[in-house]
Design goal:
CATH superfamily: Aldolase class I
Radius of gyration: 16 Å
CATH topology: TIM Barrel
CATH class: Alpha Beta
Largest sheet: 8 strands, parallel, barrel
Number of strands: 12
Number of helices: 10
Distance between the termini: 19 Å
Shape: globular
Structural class: alpha/beta
Helix content: 25-40%
Length: 253
C-alpha cells in the first residue's frame, strides 16, 4: 500500500433532481436533497464529492446544469460530475458550472477517442472514466447506460485502454456488489490496481468501516466511494476517518 492519503468520496446518484440509491442498480429509492447532502459531506470532511446524473445517458439528455451550480456553490471540496457528457462542449459547460473533474461512462464506450480529446483539451487530471462491470461466468462484463446494456468489453483491457487514452482516474463499480453493503470486490480491485498506473476509485459494496479499510489494504484502491452508508448516516465520515487512522491507513484529517 502506498503512503499517499486515501480518499473518502460520497456519491450523489441523481434522478429527477433528487438523490436516489438502489441495490444492484435497481430498486431505486429516495435519499434526500442533493444540495443539503453535499453541504453536509463537505462540512464532515469528505475528501471529494461525486455527482452522477444516472438517467441522463439513458434518456439521451444533457446534465442538470443549474443543480450542478447549486451543489458547487455549497461545498469547498473537489467535485466530480458525470452523466450525459458526450462532447467537449458538455465538459466546458460543467467547468463553468463549478466542477473540478468530469466522469465519463457510456460516451467513453460509444466513442473512445472522446477521452483522448478531453485529456488533450483539459488535462488528464480533469478526466475520470467510470466503469460499471458485472461478473458473469468468470468474466467482468462492462455495461453502459447506468448498467442497462452489456457492451462486449472486458473490464481489465477496457480500463487499460482508457488509461492509455488519457484518463486521469478510473472509477470502477462492481454491479454485483453495488448497494449490497457486503464489502467491495477486493480481489478484482487489487488486480485492476496493479494493472493501472493511475488512481483507482473503488465503488460498490460499502457497508461497514472495515469494508473501507479492506478496499485500501486488500483491494489496493486509492479512494473509496459510497452512497447509502453516508446518505442514511450509517457511517459518519469523521468516525470512518478516525477508524482508518487507528487501522494505520493514511487519510486526510
Amino acid at each position: 500500500m502506498n503512503n499517499l492519503a486515501k480518499r473518502i468520496i460520497p456519491c450523489l446518484d441523481i434522478r429527477d433532481g433528487r438523490t436516489v440509491k438502489g441495490i444492484n442498480f435497481v430498486d431505486i429509492r429516495d435519499a434526500g436533497d442533493p444540495v443539503e447532502l453535499a453541504q453536509r459531506y463537505s462540512e464532515q470532511g469528505a475528501d471529494e464529492l461525486v455527482f452522477l446524473d444516472i438517467t441522463a445517458s439513458h434518456e439521451k439528455r444533457k446534465l442538470l446544469k443549474a443543480l450542478v451550480e447549486k451543489v458547487a456553490a455549497a461545498i469547498s471540496i473537489p467535485f466530480t460530475v458525470g452523466g450525459g457528457v458526450t462532447e467537449l462542449k458538455d465538459a466546458e459547460v460543467l467547468l463553468t458550472a463549478g466542477t473540478d473533474k468530469i466522469s465519463v461512462n457510456s460516451a467513453a464506450i460509444l466513442n473512445p477517442p472522446l477521452i483522448d480529446e478531453l485529456a488533450k483539451q483539459f488535462g488528464s487530471q480533469f478526466v475520470v472514466v467510470a466503469i460499471d462491470a458485472r461478473l458473469e461466468d468468470g468474466r467482468w462484463e462492462v455495461y453502459r447506460n447506468g448498467g442497462r446494456i452489456p457492451v462486449g468489453r472486458e473490464l481489465f483491457e477496457y480500463a487499460r485502454e482508457m488509461q492509455e487514452r488519457g484518463a486521469g482516474e478510473i472509477l470502477w463499480t462492481s454491479m454485483n456488489h453495488d448497494g449490497t453493503q457486503n464489502g467491495f470486490a477486493n480481489e478484482t480491485l487489487s488486480q485492476l490496481s496493479r494493472q493501472l498506473s493511475i488512481p483507482l476509485i473503488a465503488s460498490g459494496g460499502a457497508g461497514t468501516k472495515q469494508h473501507f479499510a479492506d478496499a485500501f489494504t486488500l483491494g489496493e484502491a486509492d479512494a473509496a466511494l459510497a452512497a447509502s452508508v453516508f446518505h442514511y448516516d450509517t457511517i459518519p465520515i469523521p468516525e470512518l476517518k478516525d477508524f482508518l487512522k487507528e487501522s494505520g491507513i493514511p487519510v486526510r484529517s
